[in-house]
Amino acid sequence: MEQLHFGVDYYPEHWEQARWDRDAALMRDMGIQMVRMAEFSWHKLQPREDVFDFGWLDEAIELLGKQGIYTIVGTPTAAPPAWMVHKHPDIFPVDREGRIRGFGGRHHDCQSNPTYRSYIRKLVAKMAEHYGQNPYVIGWQPDNELGNSHQELCTCASCRQHFQEWLRRKYQTAEELNRAWGTAFWSQEYNDFEEVPAPRITVTGENPSAMLDWKRFCSDLIVDFTREQVEIIRRYAKNQFVTHNYMGFADKVDYYKLGELLDFVSHDQYPGGFYLPETPHERNHILAATLDVVRSYKNQPFWIMEQQSGITGWEIMGRAPAPGQLSLWAMQSIAHGADAVVFFRWRTCAMGTEQYWHGILPHSGNPGRRYEELQDFIHEVNPLMEKLHGSMPQAQVGIVFSFEQEYAFQIQPHHKDLSYTGQVQKYYRALYEQNIPADFVPEQGDFSKYKLLLAPLQYLMSPELEEKYLDFVRQGGHLLLTMRTGVKDKTNLCMTEGELPGRLSEAAGVEVLDYDCLRDAQVKVLFGEEEFVANIWSDLLRLLPGTETLATYGSEFYEGEPCITAHAYGKGVCYYVGTEPGEALMDRLLAQICKNAGAEPILPPVTDVECMVRENDRERFLFVLNHAGETRSYQAPEGYRLLKGQQAGNLRPYEAQVLLMEK
Ligand code: GAL
């Protein structure tokens, strides 16, 4: 089958059937090649326990198929119907305060509940059997945004029992559990796994080791929940793909592990989300990082399953995308590795929670400026998508990104403004501003392809990971480590064998003898001749022989002491950053480290202009994206020809240019 590149999320069941033909014709004229449907329509598919009705979906699939539009089927397990939860109220999730979360929204389900699982098995098998050979159905999306709304859910009796089984498999004996969790503190010892609670709110404090395992368990439960559906789907649907719509850096499920179940990863991208910062400076690097992390989960091109198509909003709303901005954002997704873009949603919904989450068509259903803009965009970009298919950015810098570190910092953030993902994004920002592309890489990933590896906050440490970092540097890599590295073992107990960062001192050439949590204070830092500021934390370092001081503290009782260092080790270099550099210091530091490591910018930076490269064996595609509502110019590189855009080097407001170099 031809490659498909553009689609919409479509909810025919929200509208009169008499309208469907017009929708399909409008989609076809716009260049839409596929729709995703049904991911919330459980009741429509199974209105009663013993009644299944796939007729309406069959008709929609066929009507669209006849217009050349293929379907991705969503399984509706994010919205169990009222008849089911009424009959089996134990399906409702129970939060950490012991409150039942009821019907009326979505995700009102406990993912371990055996009754719920059996309903799912039955429905998904029926759907997969029914659509597994349908020529108009190309793929599947089990559930929707797995992990969304499952913050700390669920603590019901079923989840408690599953958690106990999970612990039993991991630790075998209660003694081992007690050791791993450090339960001697505050008399928390267990005689049997049956005594272990699902963590409800406590009177005071929590056991960090228990909480870390709970978060791991919750993630594993979501993977298991998905696996069950994927296995059923694959039994019937031999030639259809299975994907899932991720949410970038969302943390409820380890997306690397979830990705092992999928043919490829998809993601929902809302650059103008009302919950995001508004200024380009605060926002654009987060959008880019989000797309890069999504590509990195399977280290392959991905799909966008929901790309913003209008104002976002539930109770409150975001800004209206300016003319050109929706296309620019779609192009940004493509630039970072999307092989297909599905817009959310086709038509703005007249009912329910998402009445103000705008689609391509307004409430009236009449095509307007968003339809016209995206129609032009699709017609222009579709041929380019053919060429781009399968190409990848080739980053020289990797940023280590791990869900477990995120969990550990959620449990003990140290400082009110410190988050693991936030810290990772601060390092990413400095690369982004300098047009240096980066991949994210899991701790178990391949480090060897990077010249420079940034590994902020490597808090939970294992001997294997230590060895991997040491080896990376020995082999000639440049590694950046930071404060709070090697603090804990994998069970979230503090390391006690020596000074931080543990065995990594060998590469870093420093020992952390003391530290200061800065609360609201900033500390001055002298780097070269210049004075900067840093935040959050100061490590007080003892340097081992041969370690070079790159920056010193310029205030506090440790004024004059080293703050950022470099140490040659094996064939490589290890940098240690004992604080959170403010933006100016971060820019300066990373510019120098990237230069030392030989990691090069794509183009000289221009404010609000983003650059990205995708390449394959034959061709290199350069994307230049103007996020400003004003013209911008950039230095068009030699050897490229313009594939998309009016004049290479001159960007109109929100213009995206693509240039090609044949290798
Ligand atoms: C996504 C979700 C969609 C819809 C959209 C707008 O997170 O997958 O179902 O809710 O946001 O709110």
What does this structure look like?
There is one protein chain. The chain is built from 17 helices and 25 strands. It is an alpha/beta fold. Helix 8 packs antiparallel against helix 13 (403-411), helix 10 packs across helix 14 (420-433) and helix 14 packs across helix 17. The longest helix is centred in the middle third of the chain and has 29 residues, at 208-236. Bound molecules: beta-D-galactopyranose (GAL). Residues 144-145, 245, 268, 306, 344, 354, 357 line the site of beta-D-galactopyranose (GAL).
Index terms:
single chain, TIM Barrel, 3 domains, 663 residues, alpha/beta, Immunoglobulin-like, Rossmann fold
CATH architecture of the largest domain: Alpha-Beta Barrel
Task: Tell me the name of the CATH homologous superfamily of the largest domain.
Answer: Glycosidases
Give the CATH class of the largest domain. Answer: Alpha Beta
Main β-sheet, in a few words?
11 strands, mixed
Radius of gyration: 26 Å
Report low-confidence residues grouped into runs of 5 or more.
none
Overall helicity: 25-40%
**Tally the helices: what do you get?**
17
The average pLDDT is: 97
User: Which strand-content bin applies to the residues?
Assistant: 15-25%
Question: Concise description?
Answer:
The protein is an alpha/beta fold and about 675 residues long.
Topology (SSEs and partners):
Elements: E1 6-9, H1 20-30, E2 34-37, H2 42-45, H3 55-66, E3 70-74, H4 82-87, H5 114-131, E4 137-141, H6 157-171, H7 174-181, H8 208-236, E5 241-246, H9 255-259, E6 264-269, H10 280-298, E7 302-308, H11 325-335, E8 338-344, H12 369-388, E9 397-400, H13 403-411, H14 420-433, E10 438-441, E11 452-455, H15 463-474, E12 478-482, H16 505-508, E13 510-517, E14 523-527, E15 530-543, E16 548-553, E17 562-569, E18 572-577, E19 579-581, H17 583-597, E20 609-615, E21 619-626, E22 632-633, E23 641-644, E24 650-651, E25 656-662
Parallel strand pairs: 1-2, 1-8, 2-3, 3-4, 4-5, 5-6, 6-7, 7-8, 9-10, 9-11, 11-12, 12-18
Antiparallel strand pairs: 13-15, 14-15, 14-16, 15-19, 16-17, 17-18, 20-21, 21-25, 22-24, 23-25
Helix pairs in contact: 5-8, 8-13, 10-14, 14-17
